[in-house]
Amino acid sequence: MKKVRWGIVSTGRIAGQFAQDFSAVKNAQLHAVAARNLDKAKQFAFAHNITNAYSSYEALFSDPNIHAVYIGTPHSLHYQHARAALEAGKAVLCEKPLTVSVAECESLQAMARDNGVYLMEAMWTYFLPALRKAKQWVDEGRIGNIKHIKADFGYPQLPFDPKKREYDADLAGGCLLEMGVYPVALAWLFMPQTPDDVQVISRFAPNGVEDDLAIHFNYRDAVASLGTSFRCKLQNWAYIIGDEGYIAIPDFWRASECSLYVLDEQVDKFIDNRQEQGFCFEAQAVTDDLIAKRLESQTVSFADSLAFARHMDLIRETFKR
Questions:
Q1: Are residues 65 and 182 both part of a single domain?
Q2: Are residues 113 and 134 both part of a single domain?
Q3: 3-class SS at 161?
Q4: Pick from 49-63, 125-139, 153-167, 274-288: least confident
Q5: What pLDDT is recorded for position 159?
Q6: In this protein, which residues make up the domain named Gfo/Idh/MocA-like oxidoreductase N-terminal (predicted)?
Q7: Which residues does 318 contact at the CB level (< 8 Å), separation at least 6?
Q8: CB atoms within 10 A of CB 294
Q9: 250 φ, ψ (degrees, to nearest 5)
Q10: Do the beta carbons of residue 195 and residue 218 sit within 8 Å?
Q11: Is the pLDDT of residue 23 over 90?
Q12: % of the chain surpassing 90 pLDDT
């Protein structure tokens, strides 16, 4: 395979951002887009110079010219759509969270393994150059041993509406799956272990869906303080704090820079100066994997996705106490 032909499932906001960045991806081509409404699919195809538009996801999955699909539908539908794509033999890049439960995550991964088909959760943050630089600094020992991780991601939503996707309990609504997956994944990137204890202060919308969370992971020798909210704009920064220095990452979920400090002195700084939003990095990584005939990403592995799902389950367990 010299060029990977992609299909996009959904014409929503994040699918548009993915398509907009795709011109920066080498050895790849956007071949088709599918939506439940053909007019929307055609409009999306025209806007992003895509040749084919389909009125059903099944039509896209059955297109023999497509090698890989990007799934950008609501996360309550990820399992259904990823499973159908895998059954059709298509490599899958599926938006985060990959599924809404550990059982669904394990099922998709088993199907991918059994059928020899590529599957990756689209944790685009892991591929951003600034996050990779921060991880490099940590691996080089430049901040010593990690003692604290701080990360939050929150934006005020529109007025509460139980039928709005973000709040709809039947569509796996709530701030944890919608935005909390980012700080949970950030903590796992720098502290890849299961916490010994999880404490959560939770607030809920009128229909019982969580809309504000303050989360503490207690590890053997470190602590992660995480937050997510529909109620307010949080700082949305991350701090990786060691006993010899710390790293500050503004807007870590879409990071374009990071800084390294020793006490109060900034001793290093990285800025990526990219022109794109950043979705191109994950798309390029998957494209490269497929050309190399790899069946699993080494950056967002099956083990990583399972860890995200399990840690979010640990958080949700606190709601029942």
A1: no
A2: no
A3: coil
A4: 153-167
A5: 83
A6: 4-121
A7: 198, 199, 200, 202
A8: 12
A9: -65, 140
A10: yes
A11: yes
A12: 95
Q: Does residue 236 sit within a domain?
A: yes
Asked if 92 and 166 sit in the same domain, the reply is: no
3-class SS at 117? Answer: coil
Q: Is the pTM higher than 0.90?
A: yes
Structure tokens that stand for 93 in this block? 């890049």
* CATH (domain of 213): 3.30.360.10
Q: How confident is the model at residue 228 (pLDDT cuts 50, 70, 90)?
A: very high
Same domain, 112 and 133: no
Listed in order, strand segments (DSSP E) in the chain are: 4-9, 28-34, 52-54, 68-71, 91-95, 119-122, 146-154, 197-204, 210-218, 223-229, 238-242, 246-249, 257-262, 265-271
- Let me know if residue 305 belongs to a domain: no
Span 168-208, pLDDT tens digits: 988 899 999 999 999 999 999 999 999 999 999 999 999 99
Task: Quote the domain boundaries for residue 195.
Answer: 129-271
CB 283 within 8 A of CB 70: yes
SS3 annotation, 190-202: HCCCCCCEEEEEE
Tally of domains within the chain: 2
Please answer whether residues 222 and 248 qualify as being in contact, where contact means their C-beta atoms are separated by less than 8 angstroms.
Answer: no
CA distance 198 to 223: 10
Q: Please tell me whether residue 128 adopts helix, strand or coil conformation.
A: coil
Q: Are residues 148 and 266 in the same domain?
A: yes
Instruction: Calculate the CA 243 to chain-centre distance.
Output: 29
In angstroms, the Cα distances linking 93 to 5, 144, 298 are: 13, 35, 14
**Separation of alpha carbons 210 and 226, rounded Å:** 15
Please spell the DSSP secondary structure of 22-90, one letter per residue: GGG-TTEEEEEEE-SSHHHHHHHHHHTT-SEEESSHHHHHT-TT--EEEE-S-GGGHHHHHHHHHHTT-
Domain membership flag for residue 229 = yes
Q: Are residues 62 and 147 in the same domain?
A: no
Q: Give yes or no: residues 134 and 264 share one domain.
A: yes
Give domain status of residue 306, yes or no. no
Question: Are 139 and 206 within one domain?
Answer: yes
What percentage of the chain reaches a pLDDT higher than 70? 100
Q: How confident is the model at residue 103 (pLDDT cuts 50, 70, 90)?
A: very high
